[in-house]
Amino acid sequence: MTLSRLNPGPRMSQAVTIGNIAFLAGQVPDDLTADIETQTQQVLAHLDKVVADLGATKSDIASVQIWLANMADFQGMNAVWDAWVSADSPPARATGGTSLARPGMRVEMIAVVALPEAAAA
Fold first, then answer.
1. Cβ neighbours of residue 45 closer than 8 Å, sequence gap 6 or more
2. Contact present, 6 and 54 (Cβ < 8 Å)
3. Where residue 48 sits, what CATH number does that domain have?
4. Can you give the residue range of the structural domain that contains 35?
5. pLDDT tens for residues 39-92?
6. 3-state SS record for the chain
7. Is residue 121 in some structural domain?
8. Is 60 within the bounds of a domain?
């Protein structure tokens, strides 16, 4: 089975594919001073871009892990998520609270994507 990397860097790749499964790196917000709604929108935009770069769509997302620096942000994050997620094909999802890598970072998302056959080839 072939393993390939999307946008590899010295520390990590944006995604690693094995066959038709892609494992995405954690997607993080750009503005660490923004509220949870803005940060969630930024993270979902990054997720959309990486998924598109892989030749897939958000309907191909199999699972998402969401990490919040403060579980009090759960409702605000969910409001943005609910407007974004495909009601016809929502991914499996887990949300947890943890310390995130940088001060001000309120949310990080990690996804697994099933690539369409053409994208996986």
1. none
2. yes
3. 3.30.1330.40
4. 3-116
5. 999 999 999 999 999 999 999 999 999 999 999 999 999 999 999 999 999 999
6. CCEEEECCCCCCCCEEEECCEEEECCECCCCCCCCHHHHHHHHHHHHHHHHHHCCCCHHHEEEEEEEECCHHHHHHHHHHHHHHCCCCCCCEEEEEECCCCCCCCCEEEEEEEECCHHHHC
7. no
8. yes
**27: β partners:** 109
Q: Count of domains in the chain?
A: 1
Q: In what order do the strands lie in the sheet with 61-68?
A: 3-6, 15-18, 21-24, 107-114, 61-68, 92-97
Would residue 59 count as lying in a domain?
yes
CA separation for the pair 117, 70 (Å, rounded): 38
Please state the pTM of the whole predicted model: 0.93
53 in any annotated domain: yes
- Residue type for position 88: D
| Closest C-alpha among 121, 119, 14 to residue 56 | 119
